[in-house]
Each structure stands twice: as structure tokens, then as C-alpha cells.
Amino acid sequence: MQVLGIDIGGSGIKGAIVDTVTGQIVTERHRIETPQSATPEAIAAVLEQLVSHFNWSGLVGCGFPAAIQHGIARTAANISPSFIGTHIDKLFSEATKCPCYNLNDADAAGMAEMYFGAGVGQSGVVLLITIGTGLGTVFFTDGKLMPNTELGHLYLKNGIKAELYASDAVRKTEDLDWTRWGTRFNTYLTMMEKLFWPDLIILGGGASKKFDKFKGQITVEAPVKPAALLNQAGIIGAALYAQSKNTLTDK
Ligand code: BGC
């Protein structure tokens, strides 16, 4: 089956058509800058543009940078606060005139990695962290997803929220080299390991492409791997999620 997968991020909104059987992207990825205001209306308008770019009329799945409970956005860290309480499944379906299902962006990336990437066949506890504008987290226990863990918002010992200390956006704005940023990120990983004892940690998002540059700073005991699908995981996972929701409503 083909589904339009969309990854809504703090700086860009990226889409591609995904074959959900193979987990492959079957078109070029198309990226549009996230509008500065990042309001529900502005983001809905970008989704409409993506749907028309792909001349799409089928199912749409979106990874969204917030906790999403039954189609409703519950948080809004790097997007407009007016998203809180917005039924985004409804809003985006109306704007695109396509059935549209949303889930947290890290949950989407995690689904793709567990089905087709670095987590395939992994039992026990898997933690995936997306490193981008924020820090997104998702856990799987024996392959089962625990949705909406917002653990990029944990406070570190220095009193600073993890994503305001060790995200990729912070690396860029504070102009940290990979060693300094890697040391910061390792502080966060160490805390996560002490709290959750994952069997495997997968790193996704933009920084996952640069794993070689900071892996020397990582000291946790759990194996740490970069995401195999790199920054396409969010698009692929969003498509998988939409398909699973659509199958449920079909019954
Ligand atoms: C949001 C999460 C999201 C993460 C990565 C955080 O600021 O609260 O919901 O998964 O950023 O985009």
C-alpha cells in the first residue's frame, strides 16, 4: 500500500510517498520550511501544499513534534502554543481533503526503525532518541510502543531541561564542536540509562547522520546505534501509523 508520509519538524516539513510493505520511499522527498508562526492554520496550509505537490488523494500520516492523544495535540514546545487542544487529525484531514492521522514524531521514527531499521528483531527495552530542534523519545518493550514519552523535557543535574542543553538546535546556536556537544549529549544519555536501563539505544534525527563525529564521547553501557533509516524514519513511520489506524477504522 502507498501512503503519503509527512514529518513535521521545527525547521522543515518533509513529505514523500511510502510503500508500507517494503518501508521504502518511492518518490523524491519534498521539503517546505516550517512557517515562523507555526500555527495550526499555517501548518495545515503547508500540508495542503505537500498534498498538491504529490497530486495525492489517499491516506496521509504525519509525525508531529508534540504529544498527540487520540488525534489531539497536548503539548507545543517548538510550535505555536495554539496547537494545545487542537484536534489535528480533524484539522489536517479537512485542510488536505485526505484522511490524515497524526502521531508524535519520535514515535513515528521509532516505528519505522523497529519495522525496517536498527531495531528489527530487538526484544527487551529499546529507547530511540531523535536529535533535532528538540529531543524526542520513544520506548518499545518487546516491540510494543509506549507513546508520548516527553523525556527531552527532563531536567538535568545542572537545572537545565535536556533539550535546551543537548539538542541539535542548541549545538548550532551555541556553535558547539562535536566533542563539546557529544559530552553534553552523553550527560543526557547517562541519565536516561540510569532511569530506564534500555537494552538498545537508537539515535535518530539530523544528528544521527553525524554519529561518527560524537560516538567517542558516549560512555553508556547499552549499545548505541544510529538510526538505519536516518532522517527518513519519521516519514516512513508516519505512513505506517496511518495505515494501522486506517485498518482499525475499516473494521
Ligand atoms: C517535543 C516532543 C518531540 C520532540 C522532537 C519536543 O520538544 O515536546 O513531542 O517529539 O521535541 O521533535
| Low-pLDDT windows of residues | none
Number of helices: 8
CATH homolog superfamily of the largest domain: ATPase, nucleotide binding domain
What hetero molecules are in the model?
beta-D-glucopyranose
Total number of β-strand segments? 13
The third-level CATH topology of the largest domain is: Nucleotidyltransferase, domain 5
Main sheet: strands, sense, barrel:
6 strands, mixed
Q: Could you report the average pLDDT, rounded to the nearest whole number? A: 96
Q: Number of folding domains?
A: 2
The global form is: globular
Instruction: Write the element-wise H/E pattern from the N-terminal end onward.
Output: EEEEHEEEHEHEEEHHHEHEH
Helix content: 25-40%
| Rg from alpha-carbon coordinates | 17 Å
Mind telling me which CATH architecture of the largest domain this is? Answer: 2-Layer Sandwich
* CATH class (first level) name of the largest domain: Alpha Beta
Query: Terminal Cα separation, in Å?
Result: 17 Å
Structural class: alpha/beta
Strand content: 15-25%
